[in-house]
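Backbone-to-sequence.
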């Protein structure tokens, strides 16, 4: 079996922070540079660490599956995990950030277990650990291969990163990918890694709110921006490239079709940019099928991730073909396979 490779993944992409770091607004630029430096330090530290022993788990039985959450407070520092402030089953604290992190971890567990029968993100009861109040003026959140980490935002562009539940679901879904397809975090496989996190992050939000495909906003990070920012969210799965257009923040660079695929050496080959293409494919498939996205469309994507047919270097066309095969295997030659074929065709990705 291929070993699971932990990946350091942030919700706010480097290209966006780099743009902010060049802002003429000194406060915005300074805080963006501070966040970039903190990310670089955390990424380097994680890369130098030996893999940690797996945390103690339950027996993995679906019947007894329940979340094992622990929330820690970094108190403005960067030592992880920080001081433990809430664990599974304890009452809410007086800190809304702690409580939102706890609820978001639970919401993610409930999607994977309640819909797909998966006991935590690894399928074997992995404890879910989160640290809040990380660093000062830290404008990001990340999964470091072992746990979630949330900043409080910079007060200029970003608010508290526990506010959108899909941000929590997105980052934990990087752990899901780590324990399943183990998609390499570069180029098209990296963009798929990001897209899978957006897919399941959005599904966490939709499942938690009980939203149908028509009711969902299909935005990633809605509510994260400061009210002064001209933007709805970090990304739009429905219309990639339209999430924000702001004097300070710049314009959303995501393409929605392979004709506009961005070739770049930055951001690990544009993993946060080109993820817009498979994101839109999922949205189109889910919309074509209607109802609840976590049911048929989500089930197909889940089957692909857990089916054992992907490699770490999987590219868009290979992933698309796998969704077609998964749709046929589970649903036969019906509406599901047609929706998937139509969706990938619409974004210019071949399926054969």
């Amino acid at each position: 079996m291929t070993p699971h490779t932990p990946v350091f993944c942030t919700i706010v992409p480097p290209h966006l922070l780099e743009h902010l770091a060049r802002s003429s607004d000194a406060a915005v630029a300074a805080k963006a540079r501070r966040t970039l430096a903190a990310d670089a330090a955390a990424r380097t530290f994680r890369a130098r660490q030996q893999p940690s022993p797996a945390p103690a788990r339950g027996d993995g039985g679906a019947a007894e599956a329940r979340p094992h959450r622990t929330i820690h407070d970094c108190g403005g520092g960067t030592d992880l995990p920080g001081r433990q402030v809430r664990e599974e089953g304890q009452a809410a604290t007086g800190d809304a950030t702690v409580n939102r992190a706890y609820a978001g971890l639970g919401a993610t567990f409930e999607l994977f277990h309640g819909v797909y029968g998966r006991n935590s993100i690894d399928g074997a009861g992995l404890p879910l650990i989160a640290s809040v109040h990380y660093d000062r003026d830290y404008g990001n959140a990340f999964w470091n291969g072992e746990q979630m980490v949330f900043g409080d935002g910079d007060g200029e562009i970003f608010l508290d990163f526990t506010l959108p539940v899909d941000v929590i679901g997105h980052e934990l879904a990087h752990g899901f990918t780590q324990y399943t397809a183990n998609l390499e975090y570069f180029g098209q496989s990296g963009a798929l890694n990001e897209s899978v996190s957006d897919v399941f992050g959005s599904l966490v939000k939709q499942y938690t709110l009980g939203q149908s495909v028509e009711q969902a906003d299909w935005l990633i990070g809605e509510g994260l921006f400061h009210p002064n920012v001209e933007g709805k969210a970090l990304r739009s799965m429905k219309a990639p490239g339209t999430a924000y257009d702001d004097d300070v923040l710049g314009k959303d660079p995501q393409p929605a079709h392979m004709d506009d695929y961005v070739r770049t050496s930055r951001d690990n080959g544009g993993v946060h940019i080109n993820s817009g293409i498979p994101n839109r494919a999922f949205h189109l498939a889910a919309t074509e099928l209607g109802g609840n996205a976590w049911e048929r469309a989500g089930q197909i994507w889940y089957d692909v991730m857990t089916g054992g047919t992907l490699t770490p270097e999987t590219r868009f066309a290979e992933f698309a073909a796998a969704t077609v095969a998964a749709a046929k295997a589970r649903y036969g030659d019906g509406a599901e396979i047609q929706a998937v074929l139509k969706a990938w065709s619409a974004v210019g990705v071949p399926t054969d």
